[in-house]
Amino acid sequence: MYKLKSMTFTLEELKDTIEAISPVQCDFFKENCIVVLEKSSHASGCQLALQGDKTENIQLDWSSVVNTAGYQESKKIVEHGAEALSFFLAKNYTEYTVVEEAEIGTGFDYWLGYTAEHTKYNPKNFMLARLEISGIFKETPQNTLDKRVKEKKEQTNPTDSSMLPAYISVVEFSTPKAYFGKK
Q1: In angstroms, rounded to a whole number, what is the distance separating the alpha carbons of residues 20 and 139?
Q2: Which of 1, 32, 42, 87 could form a disulfide with 46 if both were Cys (CB 3.0 to 4.6 A apart)?
Q3: How far apart are CA 166 and CA 177, in angstroms?
Q4: Per DSSP, which regions of 93-150 are E strands?
């Protein structure tokens, strides 16, 4: 029987992990993630069940206490919370990191590439992959992780002519679980 490996994401480290996104914006994504996890009755140390290109459990740790008055709209906190976890997933499960937000209408959310310190980094060609992100507060029979992954894969079709790989990240917070994989 295959034993699941385990790693840890410490949410406060997001701002130190993603260089292209400001520390303030990373903290905003982190706070959204904490709020949606706590609204889903999870505490620091909970396990995120990852599926997709890899199957393993990821421990989610945080110590921040978030004032939730500014985080009441479920759709927004789920979206931004999924961005936080997806940034960690991209950094840990691809050779890339988030380098820039994509424009609306491209069919994906973020560009992935190498950091300036990477030996393959090219400042004239640093957008090397696409990342599409989605979040689900609580899975329902009409809105499943698998259905959302299929939708997000199709959503990236208009930019397939770029020949750049597309990664799909869908986070479901009530379990919590996530799919992360290359299209």
Answers
A1: 31
A2: 42
A3: 20
A4: 97-101, 110-113, 129-136
Q: Which two tokens stand for residue 148?
A: 């959302």
Taking only the tens of pLDDT, the chain with its 183 residues reads: 344 456 999 999 999 989 899 999 999 999 999 999 999 999 999 999 999 999 999 999 999 999 999 999 999 999 999 999 999 999 999 999 999 999 999 999 999 999 888 888 888 888 999 999 999 999 999 999 999 999 999 999 999 999 999 999 999 999 999 999 999
Q: What are the beta bridge partners of residue 8?
A: 59
Question: Of 6, 19, 9, 16, whose CA–CA distance to 115 is shortest?
Answer: 19
| 167: exposed, middle or buried (Cβ count in 10 Å: 0-12, 13-18, 19+) | buried
Global pTM reads: 0.94
Residue pair 102/21 in contact by the 8 Å Cβ criterion: no
Cis before 176 (ω within 30): yes
Distance CA 41, CA 121 (A): 41
Q: Measured between alpha carbons, how far is 5 from 127 in angstroms, rounded to an integer?
A: 30
HSE, side-chain direction, 13 A CA sphere, residue 139: 16
The CA-based angle 128-153-142, given to 5 degrees, is 150
